[in-house]
User: What shape does this take?
Amino acid sequence: MTHSNRSARLDALLRSGRLSRRDLLAAAAGLGLVGLLGAGETRAQQAPRFVADPFQLGVASGYPTADGFSLWTRLAPAPLQPDGGIERDALIAVQWQVAEDERFAKVVAEGGVRAVHELAYSVHVDVVGLRPDRVYFYRFIAGHAVSRIGRTRTAPAVDALPRALKFAFSSCQHYEQGYFNGYAQLLRDAPDLMLFLGDYIYENSWGDDLVRRHMGSEPYTLDEYRVRHAQYKTDPDLQDAHAGLPWLVTWDDHEVDNDPAADESEHADPRFLVRRAAAYQAYYEHMPLPRRMRPRVDGSMPIHTRVDYGQLARFFVLDDRQYRSAMACPDPSKRGGSTILDAATCAAIEDPQRSLLGREQEAWLYRELESSEARWNVVAQQTLLAPMDNQAGPGRTIWTDGWDGYPHSQRALIEALARPGLSNPLVIGGDMHANIIANVQADPSGKARTVAAEVCGTSMASQGWPQSEYDALRADNPQLLRLNSEERGYVLIEIGRDADVQLRAPETVKQRHSTVRTVGRYRVEDGVRGIQRA
Ligand code: FE
Ligand code: CA
Assistant: This one.
């Protein structure tokens, strides 16, 4: 099938609203979801000529191991055009190099890959064979074009116990609502690793005092999601942050649409799985993900994983969006999506068959938590694990989109974290557009027994809900040490013997460039469950 036939067929499917399993697979094939298709017979263009710099979207690295990492770039001489400014059916040879020095005098690994139309001329390289716990520099070359130089590092050797580890995390960067002012200072803080915990892009436009605008309307097709990702990647602070250190990423809802659960959208759109497949593929095409995470023909894309920093820390990166059961008791005016309710009025919420991570991921996570011997166990997920009462004063309501909406999964994870042999569990999250510090309790209704420290970090740019509403909830939620929706920015955690937690916030995201300062500081002591003010 030619590309134009494929996209005509996909468009027809998207318009028809009726979609069989077979249609979906055909559509998925049309989207290029089969990955690097059998392009082997065609000769790659060794000396392509571009209308402009093909590396305008920058470079990125991620998923460090003791002997390597994943590298990313995407050739796009016209990044805001759906085709990126490269003709269809081109096949372009791209060289990559890894060096020990910034001048590339000592190149220690290099190779060639072919960038193909089906993956928007994105490049994903899994580099292996390097030395542990070292800084490396990398770049890409296509024809006469050379990319900027990226800086990254490998993880410590699997049996090493490094003295310290510094990492940062953030989430929720609505491009229209603010500049990504945290990243410049984040780079100066020089963490070893960055984690982004969801809402990397937003599909929709909303909010007050917008500082810039999305191109185009809400994305539905692969082309539209590609343009949205490319526009976010044109942000210079975000590009620098990717070029400066390795990232781990997971997604939440807005990488696709507001509030979906697995393959069901909040409005029960029958075409949602095709839309999600397009969004997932565009995500893959723009992130430094290992090649094993590439999208599958059935529209799925496995991104949950485990990353080790020697014996010091193990990161569990979870996906709470792709496999979750339908949300319980949705607003009757919609057919899905989240709401705030009194759990006692919603019998479905206690159905033991319901799962936030999906059975397979849950089983994997509990197995891993059962056997982990790491000194620090960092559970990186999208939102707030600690139960939270959303009704000020008498009565209790919960938000159904988060862990509170999946109480069986919530209790099971808390129980897994409670295992006495598990060393220093630390839960990190995002989604709330607020800095929330929590002591996760074993039995929220009974006498408090703290099981884990939780740092649900605020958004990089997305606006928070009114602080007055959170203030009213303080007395209802003694397990929450902080509830601040007016701070933007990122969290910086340094693990030595204990963990030092700093909430880093720019003064404003409404104008470009802003001083960043520490607005809150907390401590998790080695061997002590829970978190306290520093
Ligand atoms: Fe968000
Ligand atoms: Ca209450």
